Amino acid sequence: MNTVTRVVAIVATAAFALTPAACSGTKSKCKANRCDVTVKTSGKANVTALGQKFEFSNLKDDSITVKAGAASATIKEGETKPVGRFTVKVDDADPGEAKLVISR
Predict the structure, then answer these.
(1) Residues in Cβ contact with 80 at an 8 Å cutoff, skipping those fewer than 6 apart
(2) Which residue in 9, 54, 68, 87 has the fewest CB atoms around it within 10 Å?
(3) What mean pLDDT do residues 5-27 have?
(4) Measured between alpha carbons, how far is 79 from 72 in angstroms, rounded to an integer?
(5) What residues are paired with 83 via a beta bridge?
(6) Computed from CA positions of residues 81, 104, 83, 63, in that sequence, does the dihedral angle turn out positive or negative?
(7) Could you tell me the pLDDT band of residue 10, with boundaries at 50, 70 and 90?
(8) In the chain, where are the structural domains located?
């Protein structure tokens, strides 16, 4: 293998390793029994809030799927639904970003 081929292979490998599979970021701000959560993802994202791991997926215009343990619900913008022993309200849902309130 010549030097040019090695350099190309190394650069390609490094670029692949640094590329995230799906861009995601989740922020939460909790106080007492309530958390305000912002989800930014093109795939799946997770956050631990109120002692529970939540998984967010299927973020579309006006809805998002929220999973907590074995419980799961697809919630539309403006709706509030139970997810396990928690209540989740979707304040805003757009492709790539959602704002939710999780409470006990």
Answers:
(1) 87, 88, 89, 90
(2) 9
(3) 47
(4) 15
(5) 86
(6) positive
(7) very low
(8) 22-103
The predicted structure's pLDDT at residue 9: 42
Closest-CA residue to 25 (of 98, 103, 101, 102): 98
Q: Which of 59, 65, 62, 54 is CA-nearest to residue 96?
A: 59
Residue 86 is which amino acid?
A: F
- The mean-pLDDT minimum among 11-20, 39-48, 77-86 falls in 11-20
**Predicted pLDDT at 27:** 86
Look at the block and give the residue holding tokens 């799961």.
Answer: 72
CB burial class (10 A; 0-12, 13-18, 19+) of residue 46? middle
Strands (E), 1-104: 24-31, 34-41, 45-49, 52-60, 63-68, 71-76, 80-83, 86-94, 97-103
Predicted confidence (pLDDT) at residue 4 exceeds the cutoff of 90: no
Q: Which residues pair with 54 in a beta bridge?
A: 47, 68
